[in-house]
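<amino_acid_chain>
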Amino acid sequence: MNTWPVELTDGDVVLRPIRLRDQRAWREVNRRNRDWLRPWEATIPPPPPGAAPAQRPTYRQMVRHLRAEAHAGRMLPFVIEYRGQLVGQLTVAGITWGSMCSAHVGYWVDEAVAGRGVMPTAVAMVVDHCFRTLGLHRVEVCIRPENLPSRRVVEKLGFREEGLRPRYLHIDGAWRDHLVYALTAEEVPEGLLGRWHRARASGGSDRPREIK
């Protein structure tokens, strides 16, 4: 099912489709967060011998590609807004149907708002959308073992750690290992966002939780 475009909102946190006119705000957030984001950013591996090196896409090329993939039903490319300001990006990619019905989620956020619950709220909203509206069965997040802030996001939400994928993605100039975290629809019948709100209300938002 393709419900794109869609906007998801919970309090001060909004997920909405990325737009060409977001370029100035998107670039400003990226510029301020270069050192914070660089160790976790995807890079292009070296080309085969004799082949020309691939070029990173421009912002406009990136957005046009994301929008085309979204309209084809393979991706949900969001920006994250917090209190009306663009503070990050969240993308649901690799949407697969048939016997798998799964997708994976990637994200980044402005260091200035880290620790305020923005990213767990955004991930919880999009997981509920994937399970309840799209009808997916499994959502996966792959994270470098060294990326402790990103790991805390999924651990707070109760994602299961499933194991290590050696040299899984080309990140920060080399092939890097990634830990796999996942949830299936049966594990959050009450909705992930609601569970996240209850955990915060009970004072447990800083305690990692894992479903057994």
Q: What stands out?
A: Confidence is low (pLDDT under 50) at residues 205-212. The chain has six helices and eight strands. The domain at 8-201 is CATH 3.40.630.30 (Aminopeptidase).
